[in-house]
Amino acid sequence: MELTRRSLGAGALGLVTAVGPLGLTAAHADHRADLVARARSSLSLLLSEEPRARFFKKHARATLVFPSILKAGFIFGAETGNGVLLANGGAPEGFYNITGGSWGLQIGGQDFAYILFFMTESSLEYLHRSDGFSAGTGPSIVVINAGAGAEADTTTISHDVYAFPFNQKGLMADLTLQGTKITPFHPS
Predict the structure, then answer these.
(1) Are strands 141-143 and 92-118 parallel, antiparallel or unpaired?
(2) Backbone CA torsion sign across 90, 52, 124, 136
(3) Residues 19-78: tens digit of each pLDDT
């Protein structure tokens, strides 16, 4: 695929059109109480629908819940969403933002939830110590798609973090954490 000014211009226009609303969403910080309530509701929904999630929740040190991540793209893509880190007892420990970008053959938009189970103390310490992290650097993350035929038990837990994307609305492929960055933020 040869990149010309025209194709770059079309891609830039597509990016602004598809991803522009994401900037407005990211600029509006969620209120703490609303974000915690939506996170708990999303976690309850996942736990009711996915038996493996109940196993990971039971053994996790903490759970990072992003109740709504908006992802859009047309050649260039972006995603953003706010979440809350819940301690084992369910108390909020911190608030985080997830952002990412990509480029390639893609088109569409989607809203989905992401829940990350931090299985090791070292992965949780890394999240706190590093002021967030980029997927692919730091703790090992395994993405588990709903409906995949794998079982979870104490012999299969060998990674630091297990992530569950679910509750997808819209049309877009590629629900991965590749190219995303998770950073702390302070909602009002």
Answers:
(1) unpaired
(2) negative
(3) 444 444 443 446 899 999 999 999 999 999 999 999 999 999 999 999 999 988 887 888
Q: pLDDT, tens digit, for every residue of 94-108?
A: 999 999 887 777 778
Q: HSE, CB side, 13 Å, CA atoms: give it for residue 80.
A: 15
Instruction: Indicate yes or no: pTM above 0.90.
Output: no
3-state secondary structure the chain: CCCCHHHHHHHHHHHHHHHHHHHHHHHCCCCHHHHHHHHHHHHHHHHHHCHHHHHHHHHCCEEEEEEEEEEEEEEEEEEEEEEEEEECCCCEEEEEEEEEEEEEEEEEEEEEEEEEEECCHHHHHHHHHCCCEECCCCCCEEECCCCCCCCCCCCCCCCCEEEEEEEEEEECCCCCCCCEEEEECCCC
Query: What is the domain count for the chain?
Result: 1
Token reading at 48: 């009711």
Residues 6+ apart with CB under 8 A from 89: none
Residue 68 is part of which domain span?
A: 5-184
